[in-house]
């Protein structure tokens, strides 16, 4: 009886081991779908696929928002494909802001590593949660909710965000309204903003319509 049990256990162990797929490094030449990118063949995977150095350098904050977001999503970091996480670096200059935006596909965890960041989000019940964070403090932003980050104080702030998806998605509210071809009459109708203001903001952000 014992030899049979040992045989069955060995068979089960070998079968389970064969069914395990440790990782699925993205083949970025393929198309991205709901399940992520297709996997590179194991023979072409190297240690470099699991390392990303792109967040070590500061982003360029000489722009209209005075801030930069450097992503380490699957498109930049193929090793996170299928793992349910990714990251980004936030560089926010004095007076800079990451405008109201949403990540449709992920929760976000922000940790401040330099300076102070005032951050917040708006719940589905239109309740606003805001906190000024200092170095070492964290804040979470639930999936799909509008949120923002602003430098608090007169010095540059840096933070790192971790997302619960390799492709969290991003939609910035101001850009969706004023950097698109969403028509001025419809924006006015749906937001109650003055048409002159809408046209001014479209002129600043490059929108049309």
TrEMBL record:
Residue runs in coiled coils: none
Span of the signal peptide: 1-18
Tagged with keyword Secreted: yes
This protein's record includes keyword Signal: yes
Matches recorded under Pfam families: Cupin_1
GO cellular component: apoplast
GO MF terms held by the record: manganese ion binding
Compartments, record wording: Secreted, Extracellular space, Apoplast
Keywords from the UniProt entry: Apoplast, Disulfide bond, Glycoprotein, Manganese, Metal-binding, Receptor, Secreted, Signal
Protein's recorded name: Germin-like protein
